[in-house]
Write a structure and sequence with these properties.
Keywords: Membrane, Transmembrane, Transmembrane helix. This protein is an alpha+beta fold. The chain is built from 15 helices and 10 strands.
Length: about 425
């Protein structure tokens, strides 16, 4: 039932995106003005409703702080709506400039990744440079060309059309008539801008945690279904773990892979090498027993989303070859300072006896949160199964991976054979039941 709903939802969203894209070709700025007017109407209606709510609250003896906050929000809605109404022409210019600055930012990120890959003598770096130059060219055209508005809106139109076609293809693959083709070749995927999925793992896990404490029927049904899947789960050879930290860049999320009961995790784990507000550092790979790692995550109060992936024998051989190729570029790393021992990596190794490695060469030698991150390594390994998460912007985040796995898990015959959430409570339940 849920798959059918998602099927229709994806197809409908795809059709809407295509209509928006075609409208941008034909009507150009009028489309932006139309959507601006829709937003203005929404803000006026919502702001007015909040003012009415304030009046109702005064009669029900609500606290003054609540009334003042609601009054502020209502006023902000009306002020923004009035400004947009008076400056409708400016909204088009603002949108075009924002797209230009976004693409300049993507160019700088890719250029920085390219410079790190040159320093580390990594292969396939020309692709990163080409992406950077394309972003730079488009970004500058949106900022300085006399035809910036028309060219940018045409580009956005193409983006919406391609995004819509991708959504329709995904919707078709969710239908009962579609079947998953094992071992297919990878395809490039049109994805939403990274900001839309950046904090998706954090918000998703918060929602899951609320389910576990919510007494409403829907929440309890989810908890019960999740518990049944986890308790009856027969571990597969390949699993993907997605979880988040509590602060800083850790809230963006982290991706680990588990193969044959060994977890492989890559990250910026050397506190002594971190630079640029922890954006870069020496890339560290640790390999640890899966059961010990999950136990440690539970002790740390983490909530972990698990996706079990079915592999054919040929896919297993390809995956093992990729893991061997990655480990060939590593060397054993030992903690040498108190700061390292007291940091996450030291505490985790003490609890799990994990093996630690640094890279001697290659693109993973230097970790970069927006480039060579945990998702890129996981994707390189499990990409041998033909998963098509490859992003045209060249940047993979835990959020984009989570969105991909959620969508894939609903396809008929998907390679994702199981998915569930583990937190300390249900982990302890299964542990006690198995004793």
């Amino acid at each position: 039932m849920r798959a059918s709903y998602e099927n229709l939802n994806l197809i409908l969203r795809g059709l809407i995106a295509i209509i928006v894209g075609l409208s941008l070709f034909v009507f150009q700025e009028w489309v932006i003005i139309f959507f601006t007017q829709v937003i203005v109407a929404f803000l006026y209606i919502n702001g007015g409703a909040k003012f009415v709510q304030v009046v109702m609250w005064q009669r029900s003896n609500r606290r003054l702080t609540e009334i003042m906050m609601q009054l502020f929000v209502a006023s902000a809605h009306l002020m923004v709506a009035s400004w947009l109404l008076l400056e409708q022409d400016f909204t088009t210019v603002f949108l075009v400039k924002s797209i230009g600055y976004y693409q300049i930012l993507m160019a700088l990120i890719n250029l920085f990744s390219f410079s790190l890959m040159v320093k580390d003598d990594a292969g396939n770096r020309v692709d990163v440079l080409i992406r950077a130059l394309i972003h730079l060219g488009f970004g500058l055209s949106s900022l300085i060309l006399p035809t910036a508005i028309n060219s940018t809106l045409n580009r956005v139109g193409w983006y919406f059309i391609l995004l819509g076609l991708a959504s329709i293809m995904d919707g078709r693959e969710l239908s009962d008539k579609a079947t998953y083709r094992s071992g297919r070749s990878r395809r490039w995927r049109i994805t939403a801008p990274i900001w839309f999925t950046l904090l998706l793992p954090d918000s998703t896990i918060q929602k899951f945690n609320q389910y576990f404490t919510n007494k409403e029927l829907d929440a309890q049904q989810f908890v019960q279904q999740n518990r049944e899947v986890y308790v009856n789960y027969d571990p597969l050879a390949l699993e993907v773990f997605i979880h988040v930290g509590k602060e800083g860049f850790n809230r963006v999320g982290h991706v680990d892979i588990s193969y044959q009961d060994k977890v492989y995790s890559y990250g910026n784990h050397d506190i002594e090498s971190r630079q640029l507000f922890d954006l870069i550092g020496d890339g560290v790979l640790f390999v640890v027993d899966k059961q010990k790692y999950i136990e440690y995550c539970m002790q740390e109060g983490s909530t972990v989303m698990v996706y079990g992936i079915h592999l054919s024998n040929l896919q297993k051989i390809a995956l093992e070859a990729e893991l061997a190729a990655i480990k060939k570029d590593t060397m054993v790393w030992h903690l040498t300072t108190d700061a390292q021992r007291h940091d996450y990596i030291g505490r985790m190794q003490l609890a799990t006896q994990a093996q630690l490695y640094k890279f001697k060469r290659g693109k993973f030698k230097t970790y970069f949160v927006m480039g060579t991150n945990c998702v890129l390594l996981a994707d390189q390994v499990i990409g041998t199964s033909g998963m098509d998460i490859l992003a045209l912007n060249g940047i993979l985040t835990p959020g984009s991976y989570l969105a991909y796995f959620e969508r894939e898990s609903m396809k008929k015959g998907s390679f994702i054979s199981a998915k569930f959430v583990i937190n300390e409570g249900i982990y302890q339940e299964k542990h006690i039941a198995n004793q």
